[in-house]
Structure formats: C-alpha cells, structure tokens
Amino acid sequence: MQFVIVRPDGATVFDEVAALPERGFVWCDCSYEDGRAWTAPVQQLTGVGVFEDHLLDAENPAHPSYFDSTNEYEMIVFRGLAMRTDTIEPSGVIRVKTRPAVFFVFPRVLVTVRAPDNRPVSTIRDRLLAGGRARLPALPEELMLRLLNGMVDRYLDLRQPLSEQFERRQRQLLDPRRPFRDWYELLESRREARRLQDLCEEQLDALQEWRDERLERTERQAGEPHDLHALDDALQVRTADIVGHIHRVLHHARRLESSVESAVQLHFSATAYRTNEVMRTLTAITAVFLPLTLITGVFGMNFEFIPGLHAESGFWWAIGSMVLIGAILFSFLRTRAMLSASNPIGRRRRRASRASHTPAAAGTTTGPDGERDA
Predict the structure, then answer these.
(1) Which of 43, 64, 161, 339 could serve as a FRET partner for 2 with CA atoms 20 to 30 Å apart?
(2) Which sign does the torsion angle of CA 11, 211, 243, 84 carry?
(3) CA–CA dist 279, 101 (Å, integer)
(4) 240-290 pLDDT, tens per residue?
(5) In the chain, which ranges are continuous DSSP H helix?
(6) From edge to edge, which strands make up the β-sheet containing 109-114?
(7) Distance (Å, rounded) from C-alpha 348 to C-alpha 90?
C-alpha cells in the first residue's frame, strides 16, 4: 500500500499521509494482499467510513463490473485483463481471464484496490512519479478515468490475437483436404468471444451509471452543495473516449462471432455440396449401367428361344449394343452436366469471362445510338 500525493507541480510517494495537502489530492494504491489496511488511513483523511457491503464487494475476485454511490463517496468495480495478450493455451484457444479493479472516489482521495500485476495502474503511477511534460491529473476522477482508459486499451490489444485465432479456425473449417474435427475448440473460441461481449456490456453499464450520477450532481449543484466534483467538459470527454474504446472492442467481438457462425454455415454448405456431387456421380453411373445389366440379365436366362442366342456373332452383337447404349447414355448425361466436374452455371460464367477478355470484345465500344463502334 502506497500513498501518492498528486499536486499540479508533481507527484510524491509516501508510506503514510496524516492530512490532506493544501493543493492536489491523495491517491491510495493498494493490492489484494493489503486487505482492509487502507480503510483506517482513508477514514482519517476523509472522515468517511466505507460500508461493509462495499468492502465485501472489493474483496470478491469474481465481482462483475459495477457502480454504486453514497452521499460521501463512489465505488466502481471494473474488470481488466489478467493475462498477457499474446499468451495462447496449447489447445490454441485464447482465454480472456479478468480480475476486478475497485475504485473508491472521495472528494480529494482516490483509492484503488487491484491485483499486484495490474500493468496499467503500475504504468500510470510510474509515469506520475517520473514527472515530465505530461499534465498531471487535477482531480481524483480524472486519474480514475486515466486508469480505466489504460485497462480498456489492453482489451484493444487483444483484438489482433483473437482475429488470428478465428481466421485460423475459419481456414480449417473451409479446408477441403482435411475434415474438421476440432469442434470443441471452436465452441470454446466462440464462448470466449461471447464472454468478451458480456464484459464490455457490463463495463458500459457501470460507466453509464457513473456518468448519469455525476450529471445529476451537476444539475443539483446550483441548489445544494456537494463535495464530489461535478462532471465538467473535460471529464465528459474522457468518459466518452473510454466508452468509445469499449464500443470498439464490443463491435470487434460481435464481428468475430458473426464470422465464425458464417464459416460454420459455409462448412456445412460445402459438405452438403460435396455429398450432392458424389450422389449425382453415383446416380449417373447407375443410370449408365442399368440397361447394360438388363441386357446381360436377359441373355443370361436359360431359355432356348432367345433370338440370336446360338448365333456365332450374337456375343459380339450384344457387346456392341451394350457399348453403343453406354456411349449414348454417357454423352446424354454429360450434356446434362450429370457427369461434369462443374455445373452449367460455372461453365457459363467461365465462358462469359473468357469472352470479356477477348481482343474483339476489348476493342469494341458502344456508341450513344446503341451501336458498337470499333
């Protein structure tokens, strides 16, 4: 647990803070291992005690994104990524693992309760302490929005590996040389996309409730004094920016899920098409050999009165008629595209494509009168 005093001229870190500074605000950064050690110092600084239910919510690792407020402070639970965005399990499925980060916003104090490996919080804290030309946040709300923006940016970094994973699944689905059998991994990938959508929707709900609460405070500020800062234009711009980033992640997750569903439909359509092609070929072969089987069956019967049965050239006449009938049927079925490798529509398209690239077609134009000119 560390206390960072953020002033307009710089930021300083302390182990303990006895009173609020004259300018700026105090940021109390805690991890899960600190437990409730921050409650007593924060109550000494603000004179406000945190409700027991809110403390239980901060200790719950499975709590969804959520917002709640009282007259003295606000609480936002925001789930961020708890994994490296380039980590893929042996099965090839990217797991969207998250952990909650809890923000308690007091008039001049910000408390963050987060995981020890929360990179956005650590990065922004180091940036504040390093100083530089970057403008320091003037309010606890502004610092909270910067932290939320860093957490959402990690979801944006997750789009590329997710896209590569889903594109790989689509190629496997539509590969005609290899039957697709990884249905469990495909369903897991789709479930992760749906889970990412649910996370984004929860985050949007929490931010929307916080923004609505601050707008109501802004409207009541003229008649009633409030210690919490009103939602000015700068805070509204930062909030809208975070909401826009979350919408981008949400739209990307929906697009991935839709593309997978389309690939599955294409897979089943291609499978049905191949099955129809096989059945069409077998049907055509059966149609060719049916009359030949009839002829051999007739001449194979043990009757003495069959015409030509005892003729010396009867065998060759039977063979010749069978070959002739087979050739006629084969030509007829091939004309009807029953034995062709491609359908008539495909042949017509290829003929039209070849005709459009011929020199004669390329060198002719149509005049205003509808006549062709060379």
Answers:
(1) 64
(2) positive
(3) 59
(4) 999 999 999 888 888 888 887 887 887 788 788 888 888 888 888 888 888
(5) 39-46, 52-59, 119-130, 140-157, 159-173, 183-220, 233-299, 314-335, 344-356, 359-362
(6) 10-14, 2-7, 25-31, 109-114, 98-105, 74-81, 66-69
(7) 47
- Strand pairing report for 109-114 and 74-81: unpaired
Dist. CA 86–CA 81, nearest whole Å: 12
* Residue whose tokens read 């063979």: 319
The DSSP call for residue 139 is: S
How far apart CA 73 and CA 51 sit, in angstroms, is 10
- CB contact set of 101 (below 8 Å; sequence gap of 6+): 77, 78, 79, 80, 112, 113, 114, 115, 118, 121, 147, 151
Residues pairing with 112 in the sheet: 29, 103
* CA–CA distance, 288 with 330 (Å, rounded to integer): 7
* pLDDT, tens digit, 9 for 90 and up, residues 144-176: 999 998 888 888 877 777 777 777 777 777 777
Q: Distance between CA atoms of 284 and 136, rounded to whole angstroms?
A: 79
How far apart CA 74 and CA 194 sit, in angstroms, is 29
pLDDT digits (tens, 9 = 90+) for 304-339: 666 766 667 777 777 888 888 888 877 877 776 666
DSSP state of 258: H
Helix (H) or strand (E) holding 65: none
Residue with tokens 């069959």: 306
DSSP states along 271-323: HHHHHHHHHHHHHHHHHHHHHHHHHHHHHTS--TTSTTTT-TTHHHHHHHHHH
| 254 token code pair | 């929906």
Angstrom CA distances, 347 to 28, 249, 343, 359, 366, stand at 73, 44, 7, 21, 26
Q: Which of 21, 74, 66 shows the shortest CA–CA distance to 227?
A: 74
Are the beta carbons of 240 and 215 closer than 8 angstroms? no
Q: Angle 318-320-326 (CA atoms, 0-180°, nearest 5)?
A: 100
Residues sharing a CB contact under 8 Å with residue 347, sequence separation 6 or more, in sequence order: 337, 340
Please name the amino acid found at residue 297: G
* Farthest CA pair distance, the chain: 125
